[in-house]
Design brief:
Blueprint: E1 9-16, H1 29-41, E2 46-52, H2 53-62, E3 67-71, H3 77-90, E4 95-99, H4 110-113, E5 122-124, H5 129-141, H6 146-151, E6 159-163, E7 166-169, H7 192-195, E8 203-204, E9 207-208, E10 228-229, H8 232-245, E11 252-259, H9 264-279, E12 285-289, H10 294-303, H11 319-324, H12 332-337, H13 339-342, E13 350-353, H14 360-372, E14 380-383, H15 395-400, E15 404-417, E16 420-431, H16 437-454, H17 460-468, H18 473-486, H19 490-504, H20 510-519, H21 521-526, H22 532-542, H23 545-559, H24 566-580, H25 582-585, E17 592-599, H26 601-606, E18 617-625, H27 634-640, H28 655-658, E19 675-677
Parallel strand pairs: 1-2, 1-3, 3-4, 4-5, 8-11, 11-12, 13-14
Antiparallel strand pairs: 5-6, 6-7, 9-10, 15-16, 17-18, 18-19
Length: 678
């Protein structure tokens, strides 16, 4: 047996792209959990956790690991493979272990069977803590003999190997019943370096599993259906530890699949609220809220000082769609019952398109229903992904619903790693037997326009006025979109460019995507290509502000035609918003501009109740003061979004591109308002 003269050096990494800012700026909780348990079972080993490419490769070169565990998600799958190759080149004896939702031992997983992952020695499917810890334990007992370890594969739970294009798998381990037995990667200090780094947002998990069986989700499998939770004392201890080290401006991500749905989540929310009182953290809480128990979710949201969005993972409002994807949503009656309560809470309904049985008509009807049932600041509309190990990926499902599947790059995740180009790809649906590709593109375009006018409420006064007149938001937004999509002008051109961009990014194979991205790398970095919804929803405001504002008020006048005092009211509101956004409409930008209005629009807009603007009739003068942001020019806005617009020029580099800043520093059009005073 091989004599071991040093401590086993183990690295666990949830690697992300970092050459242009972190692609996933969150603390690697999953990798941390695996690393913490491995250390607990094997106290004599050296364990470290990594995220960014640069520090990870530096560490691999400086202290080559004996074992490297790499997570495989849709956002870092190819990157993990590349890192494994780098590690193997430096230390040919390194034991490489892959794990994560992209790892599936089903023979239907063509990526596994076609040799894409041949660099890995072992694969872990499902929960990784016990499997990885036991694998290392046995590896040590066998004197670091890989061959002997592989010969014992049938004894190693949740593990499999590939031999001669055949999958040889050990038994599935029972899921961890008591999550308190898995050490916290925070309180053990493994994640301290991330807490101290302002680039990262902390993540915690309070429960694990999902009671639902959605066909598009990797947690829809029966294996994950039973929900297990951590004790309140465990969660409190972890939160308190994070709170001592975290920056107040950092957010918090709770990774549970259905947080705020369970009674015990109220106690967790109470503790988070107590921390907020002490240190004003977290100012933002990101989570996937539950699919039932809406009243409890609202109650918890109200405890957290407006820090939490209700994600409303609706996916579709069409009962025929929900039946096929095995999804149970909040009943429409429950949404209607809580309509008034929802208006005071930040919401972000999540929709997927195109899903089986969805049509353009039902999609528009569904999203409009959601729009009319709450004060939604934004919609999250996602393209239907075909994820590994989901029912949606089954060939029978694909055939039954006529899913037209393409490949595209994932979230602009690409770069060079040790002189090799790497790009993340995803399988997406662009059409079904009930929705053509053109209809799909129209659905995505409507969602983009909604995002533009709802995100951070750049024209919230318009929606307040609609409420005054008891006009549904959807009547206005549908009319506005119809005007934009069908009237020949710059707004129509913007929508057409958005559609063309979506089509240009889809290909017939992963290889085609990588080739396309490599050829167009500079254009993506400059913002000429790519950008998706974020880019084009903001283009309506940044590049086409005047035309956009004109279309908004034309539409508003049309939907309010023949309403009491509507002409005078709308004219005053239009003039008011033009002065609020004075710097967007005028080249000369004095520090203060002023004008008279027939209504006290400022007082009316600040009143949270549905008070009529006509009740605020009062001749009043407002002063509109320039702020530090209000007159930022277009180039700088695009730089702050990470995009440098060069639609007419095709230069690979310029000074502006070097000044682009990260996600946390982006601002939206609503922040470019002038300050209004009497």
């Amino acid at each position: 047996m091989k004599k071991i003269n040093k401590k086993l050096n183990v690295i666990v990494a949830d690697v992300c792209y970092d050459d242009n800012g972190l692609s996933t700026p969150v603390i690697p909780l999953g990798a941390g959990l695996v690393a913490a348990h491995a250390k607990a079972v094997n106290p004599d080993i050296l364990v470290s956790v990594y995220k960014g490419i640069t520090p990870l490769i530096d560490e691999i070169k400086k202290n080559p690991p004996d074992v490297i565990g790499l997570t495989n998600y849709v956002w870092n799958n190819n990157l993990a493979i590349r890192i494994a190759n780098v590690a193997k080149k430096i230390n040919p004896d390194v034991l490489i272990v892959f794990g994560g939702p992209e790892i599936d031992k089903s023979p239907a997983n063509k990526s596994i069977m076609n040799g894409k992952y041949n660099i890995a020695d072992f694969f872990i499917q499902y929960e990784g803590e016990l499997a990885f810890a036991n694998l290392i334990k046995r590896y040590l007992e066998l004197g670091l003999d890989k061959s002997k370890l592989k010969n014992e594969i049938l004894k190693l739970g949740n593990c499999f190997i590939i031999e001669n294009k055949k999958i040889i798998a050990g038994p599935n381990l029972h899921r961890i019943e008591d999550l308190d037995l898995t050490p916290s990667p925070y309180t053990t200090g493994l994640l301290d370096k991330f807490l101290e780094d302002p680039a990262y947002m902390p993540m915690i998990q309070t429960n694990r599993g999902c009671p639902f069986s959605c066909t598009f989700c990797q947690e829809g499998e029966e294996y994950f259906n039973k929900v297990r939770r951590k004790s309140l004392s465990f969660v409190k201890t972890e939160l308190d530890y994070i709170a001592k080290k975290v920056r107040p401006e950092a957010g918090l991500w709770i990774t549970d699949s259905n947080w705020a749905m369970y009674k015990w989540d109220e106690d967790i929310a109470d503790h988070i609220a107590s921390i907020q009182k002490k240190i004003s953290w977290p100012r933002e809480l990101i989570t996937s809220t539950g699919k039932s128990q809406l009243e409890r979710i609202i109650k918890i949201a109200n405890k957290l000082n407006n820090a939490m969005f209700i994600s409303n993972s609706i996916q579709s409002m069409n009962p025929d769609v929900l039946k096929e994807i095995k999804r149970k949503n909040l009943p429409p009656a429950e949404l209607e019952k809580n309509k008034e309560s929802l208006k005071s809470i930040r919401q972000e309904p999540e929709i997927i398109v195109p899903l089986p049985n969805e049509t353009k008509k039902t999609f528009f009807e569904g999203i409009n229903t959601l729009l009319d049932n709450g004060k939604n600041q934004r919609f999250a509309v996602f393209q239907c992904l075909i994820l590994t190990n989901t029912e949606m990926a089954n060939t029978n499902t694909i055939s039954k619903f006529g899913l037209n599947i393409k490949y595209k790059q994932h979230w602009n995740l690409f770069g060079w790693v040790e002189n090799e180009f790497v790009c993340e790809t995803e399988r997406v649906t662009v059409a079904t037997n009930t929705m053509s590709e053109e209809d799909y593109l129209s659905c995505r375009s409507y969602a983009m326009v909604l995002d533009s006018i709802l995100r951070f409420e750049p024209i919230h006064e318009v929606f307040k006025l609609l409420e005054n007149y008891n006009i549904k938001n959807s009547i206005f937004t549908s009319a506005l979109f119809n005007k934009m999509e069908n009237k020949s002008n710059k707004l129509q051109q913007c929508i057409r460019k958005f559609k063309d961009n979506l089509k240009a990014e889809t290909h017939n194979s992963e290889e085609e995507v990588i080739k396309y991205m490599k050829e167009n790398e500079d254009k993506y970095k400059q913002g000429v290509l790519g950008g998706g919804n974020l880019k084009y929803s903001n283009m309506l405001w940044v590049d086409h502000f005047e035309e956009n504002l004109e279309a908004i008020f034309q539409t508003l006048k049309e939907v309010l035609i023949n309403k009491e005092d509507s002409v005078e009211v709308v004219n005053n509101l239009e003039k008011y918003l033009r002065f609020v956004y004075f710097d967007r409409l005028n080249k000369e930008v004095p520090d203060i501009v002023s004008n008279y209005f027939d209504y006290d629009l400022l007082k009316w807009s600040k009143n949270k109740s549905n008070t009529r603007l006509q009740d605020y009739k009062n001749k009043i003068e407002y002063k509109f003061k320039k702020t530090s942001l209000s007159n930022i020019d277009t180039k700088q806005i695009w730089a702050n979004f990470g995009f440098i617009q060069k639609e007419e020029e095709e230069k690979s580099q310029d000074n502006e591109s070097k000044e682009a800043v990260g996600w946390d520093n982006r601002f939206f059009i609503s922040k470019l308002r002038r300050e209004v005073t009497f």
